[in-house]
Amino acid sequence: SNSGPNTNGCQFFITCAKCDWLDNKHVVFGRVLGDGLLVVGKIENVVTGPNNRPKLVCTIAECGEM
């Protein structure tokens, strides 16, 4: 993502359901490996509040480099 000069970053989404409305609009790549799928399941089950925002902060850290 980019919000102006010197702000380049990255943004990615892991989906747990089919997202037909994204077809032909975004590049899709990658897959979750090994125990990572268990982590995705735990994140998917975090309770949400208003505006469907998670009530618990979920941070992915020390996940490797590309």
Explain what you see.
- The protein has a single domain (1-66), classed as Cyclophilin-like (Cyclophilin, Beta Barrel), CATH 2.40.100.
- The chain is mostly loops and 66 residues long.
- The two termini are 17 Å apart.
- The mean pLDDT is 83.
- It is 14% helix and 0% strand.
Approximate shape: globular
The span between the termini is 17 Å
Helix percent reads 10-25%
Number of domain modules? 1
Number of strands: 0
Assign the CATH topology.
Answer: Cyclophilin
Topology:
Elements: H1 36-44
GO molecular function: cyclosporin A binding; peptidyl-prolyl cis-trans isomerase activity
EC number: 5.2.1.8
Protein name: Peptidyl-prolyl cis-trans isomerase
Sum this structure up briefly.
The protein is largely without helices or strands.
Question: What descriptive keywords fit this protein?
Answer:
single chain, 66 residues, little secondary structure, Cyclophilin, globular, rotamase, Cyclophilin-like_dom_sf
